[in-house]
């Protein structure tokens, strides 16, 4: 499936065949895991709403981040006409905010609760995504910098609070598998 997603373009026969084989093998895997006395991946974890929704949200937010990380350099350099060093400084907003805000977000998650912080982070990400529509050379660059700050802050809090919610709802003894699923959802979102 990863091969079909990353190498495929259009409706080429090999891409379609690879995708069909991947879906068939996924069905075989799911059927086997459901009937196995000790499954490699306990699919019942996905019936726990906070776990399943947290994994889905993680995939979506990573997709958002991956798309923006891909498009922003082109936008700032080709549309805005900024020099590569200036583009690099703008893109450094995300990691800089992560370095500063993640430890603070961790403390706030412990104090206020992960769900409340996750709701705030999600609201910031939705707001920043809506503001992205307003990117235009007719607007001052400060608008885009402010949007990047809101987006970076939302990402820093989200990536602190979401794993707390996901892993906090994992059954005792399934924390390792749940953590692996969280990592998988990150990889899936970045494809």
Q: Which class of secondary structure composition applies to the elements?
A: mainly alpha
Percentage of β-strand residues: under 5%
Mean pLDDT: 89
Helix share bin: over 70%
- Helical element count? 8
Rg from C-alpha positions? Answer: 20 Å
| Extended strand count | 0
Give the N-to-C terminal Cα separation.
11 Å
Tell me about this structure:
This protein has helices spanning 2-7, 13-35, 49-79, 84-91, 93-112, 114-132, 141-168, 175-189. The protein is mainly α and 191 residues long. Helix 3 (49-79) packs antiparallel against helix 7 (141-168), helix 3 (49-79) runs parallel beside helix 8 (175-189) and helix 5 crosses helix 7. The chain is flat, with a radius of gyration of 20 Å. The model has no long low-confidence stretch (mean pLDDT 89).
Topology:
Elements: H1 2-7, H2 13-35, H3 49-79, H4 84-91, H5 93-112, H6 114-132, H7 141-168, H8 175-189
Write out key terms for the chains shown.
single chain; 191 residues; mainly alpha; 8 helices
Question: In brief, what are we looking at here?
Answer:
With 191 residues, this protein is mainly α. The chain is built from eight helices and no strands. The protein is flat.
